[in-house]
Amino acid sequence: MKIGLLGHGVVGSGVRKIIDDQKTIEVQELVVKRILVKDDWEMTDERMTQNADDILNDPEIDIVAECMGGLEPAHTFVRKALEQGKHVVTSNKKMLATYCRELFAIANEHGVTVHYEAACGGGIPWMAALDRIRRVDDIMNFRGIFNGTTNYILERMYHEGKDFSEMLGEAQKLGYAERDPSDDIDGFDVKYKVMLSAVKANDVLLNLDDITTFGIRHILKKDLDYCRDNGYVCKLIGRGVRQEDSVSACVMPMFLKLDDMFASTPLNFNVIECEGATLGKAAFTGQGAGSLPTAHAVVQNIIDIWKNQDSEINPKLPAAVDNRDLMGVYYIRTKKSALFADITDRYVGEDTILTEKISLSEAALRIKNVDDPDLFIAEVAE
Amino acid sequence: MKIGLLGHGVVGSGVRKIIDDQKTIEVQELVVKRILVKDDWEMTDERMTQNADDILNDPEIDIVAECMGGLEPAHTFVRKALEQGKHVVTSNKKMLATYCRELFAIANEHGVTVHYEAACGGGIPWMAALDRIRRVDDIMNFRGIFNGTTNYILERMYHEGKDFSEMLGEAQKLGYAERDPSDDIDGFDVKYKVMLSAVKANDVLLNLDDITTFGIRHILKKDLDYCRDNGYVCKLIGRGVRQEDSVSACVMPMFLKLDDMFASTPLNFNVIECEGATLGKAAFTGQGAGSLPTAHAVVQNIIDIWKNQDSEINPKLPAAVDNRDLMGVYYIRTKKSALFADITDRYVGEDTILTEKISLSEAALRIKNVDDPDLFIAEVAE
Questions:
Q1: Per-residue pLDDT at A72 exceeds 60
Q2: What is the chain B residue with the closest CA to A20?
């Protein structure tokens, strides 16, 4: 199998290294033929090129592995690769979650496949586990700590009593968080992963904009003080729950009890749990990012293609997000707390309420109408 | 694919139910043709038979699923099935760990395979995960809470300050523990699973008798008091560590720190962790027992055979167990503690020492020579 690699950064260089090292008999079947790089200084190997067409138009290349990140030109290159009848493996959750309707249709038309284990859960074999479980079971629900950067920030704020901005700065210094941290701290990164998980778990294509998403940008030290004083930890959780004809889907901070299995997830790890009809609950923990763990997932997908082990036999159809049945108690801190008076169970701090048990759709609608840019909301585990 | 089912107890009846229910298109390819039962009252279905030859000699049956438990006649039936050119799926860890050298050789000779996902980790897709990870990585080490019964006993002793014998009695009353609880509480059940994990993880066939095994039969309330007072929890852990030409392998109670991911494993769950060269650490949590989760694993293996997805391409060769490089600090409680004087770091209770950091092979040898039937040993996490 001849592979064309788009991108030679953190993930791409890991893929190149694993395949070049030829450590197992499966990997010995793979060859990286060409590598697309951006800058002159990256042209360190005769396989490097700065022209994507050298890969996309090469009839010898069977599989294109896209590890560039960003929407464009990644999206255009992937579309062209599929149109040329090449299988695609991508680690790019943002691009895939944004364009998967179009890309899955093109792949289908050209008899090839799109694989994305590395795009959701990094090194965790989460997508592969879903594929396997689905052979026997429907997936009733899933939830996960899908983002290491926010887990790092929340853990350190919790244990060291630090401020959000200080911890974000440190995460950026360590290279965990991007210079524009919005995708991480506003929950968009987790939203992409919830959308892709629902594709595998429930065969549905959700509208990204319909997934209720609250991040941790406005979390304060005192919110974590409340957690600590009341036997909770705070985690940013992405969730999906299969309903009759729709899917409940959301991303939001949750105050979890200390004996929740998710409570002790280490700093830079991800954990994802799902529930199958006969399997019951199963959980998967691993490194959600990093060069080699993510590259490992890309190489696994390449081997899946080589072995023709694509079990995505069910069509993926658009489905509505419906959070009317997702009931919860919410911790809401806002200067406009008086506007929540009719759903307030009690005040737990200045401007801070615990709601009665209400649906997430109602909570989200109320928050939209209140229009307080500094509002912080978290669901409180019962 | 036509399946013959040996046994219709907890696991076997679950397999029958999942296949009869025909919920997914993969399962719709499977048919349970005959079911071996023991007693007259079990003959509730025209597929039932009390004569194993009706299954073993039926040329239409492609796969024999053995869910009987026990060494005999399960072992003889499995051997005969393989000799008849039938693939075998088994949930019987004791039988397989005891006879796998013989059975793998017979399977190989007749061009068929033996699958055993349900024998190790029940519903957890642990064997499948190892198969997948091994396509890219060597496995450097694994460790797991492989036994729900002992986890149940230890958790309740720890949180409720109960005695061992009381909790064992309760586990037996709930059907978690057998009337003869030795396999669980003496660590043999975990030993079988460590042996089978090493087959998948390292392609080695270890001698069961060589795996250092200490159970929890002699644990006292005061041992758990020590844990609680010093920030530990106690778990029965099975482990394997790949060495140059051998494997370190053991089963023993461990005092783990509270922030260890294993510390918050719920009552009846199993958790298993492994480390791959490029994947890094990954962990898998799920129900280690129970009718449907274990049956789910059997059905998954049947689908593996149908899809011809057997990735066990490496030969399994005998290898020595060598625990000389497995260093640890040990908590040892024995009336003969004076005999450990030269390796004692300090006393932490009456007759109870913490050792200096020594090898497990030395600790095991000393304990054997001391010959105190009531001795309790646990490794203390650093």
A1: yes
A2: B136
Of A23, A259, A286, the CB nearest to B282: A286
Evaluated on CA atoms B89, B92, B97, B101, the torsion sign reads negative
* A207 within a domain of the structure (yes/no): yes
A183 vs chain B: nearest CA distance in angstroms?
25
Pairing of strands B247-257, B212-213: parallel
Specify if A111 maps to a domain: yes
Residue B21: inside a domain: yes
Chain A nearest CA to B347, separation (Å):
31
Task: State whether A143 and A278 are in the same domain.
Answer: yes
Residues of A in contact with B287 (CB under 8 A): 279-282
Q: What is the CA radius of gyration of chain B?
A: 22
Residues A104 and A168 in one domain: no
Residue A207 sits in a domain whose CATH number is: 3.30.360.10
The phi, psi pair for B23, rounded to 5°, reads -75, -30
Pair (B263, B154) in one structural domain: yes
For the domain that residue A115 is a member of, what is the CATH number?
3.40.50.720
pLDDT tens digits for range A182-222: 999 999 999 999 999 999 999 999 999 999 999 999 999 99
Q: Which of A138, A285, A299 sits opposite B283 (nearest CB)?
A: A285
**By CA distance, what is B28's nearest residue in A?**
A136
Q: Are A147 and A280 found together in one domain? A: yes
Domain span holding position B107: 2-119
Q: Is residue B30 pLDDT above 80, yes or no?
A: yes
Say if the Cβ atoms of B280 and A286 lie within 8 Å.
Answer: yes
Q: Looking at the structure, do residues B46 and B24 belong to the same domain, yes or no?
A: yes
Q: Do A137 and B290 touch (CB under 8 A)?
A: no
**What distance in Å separates residue A352's CA from the closest CA in chain B?**
30
3-state secondary structure of B326: coil
* Claim to verify: residue A94 and residue A159 sit in the same structural domain: no
Helix or strand (DSSP H, E) at A11: helix A10-21
Full-prediction pTM beyond 0.90?
yes
Q: Give the mutation candidate from B15, B16, B135 for the A interface (greatest A CB count, under 10 A).
A: B135
On whether the CB atoms of residues A117 and A296 are closer than 8 A, the answer is no
Tokens 């033996």 correspond to B114
User: Distance from B45 to chain A by nearest Cα, in Å?
Assistant: 23
Q: How far apart are CA B259 and CA B256, in angstroms?
A: 8
CA distance B93 to B97: 6
Regarding whether A139 and A108 lie in a shared domain, the answer is no
Residue listed under structure tokens 């109870």: B352
Query: Which residue of B138, B278, B283 is in closest CB contact with A292?
Result: B278
Among all residues of B, which ones are annotated catalytic? 193
Domain count, chain A: 2
Report which DSSP code applies to A344.
Answer: E
Do B313 and A25 make contact, defined as CB atoms within 8 angstroms?
yes
Task: Tell me whether residues B260 and A264 touch, CB distance under 8 A.
Answer: yes
ipTM metric: 0.94
Nearest CB neighbour to B123, from listed A26, A125, A282: A282
Segment B247-280, tens digit of pLDDT = 999 999 999 998 888 887 877 789 999 999 999 9
Range list of H helices, chain B:
10-21, 53-56, 74-83, 93-109, 126-134, 148-160, 164-173, 182-185, 188-202, 221-229, 291-306, 360-370
Task: Please tell me whether residues A268 and A159 are part of one structural domain.
Answer: yes
In A, minimum Cα distance to B22 occurs at: A136
Contacts of A129 in chain B (CB under 8 A): 125, 129
Each residue of B115-124: pLDDT tens digit?
999 999 888 9
Give the domain-ending residue among B58, B84, B119. Answer: B119
| Test mutation, A19, A30, A136, chain B, max B CBs within 10 A | A136
Question: Is A352 part of any domain?
Answer: no
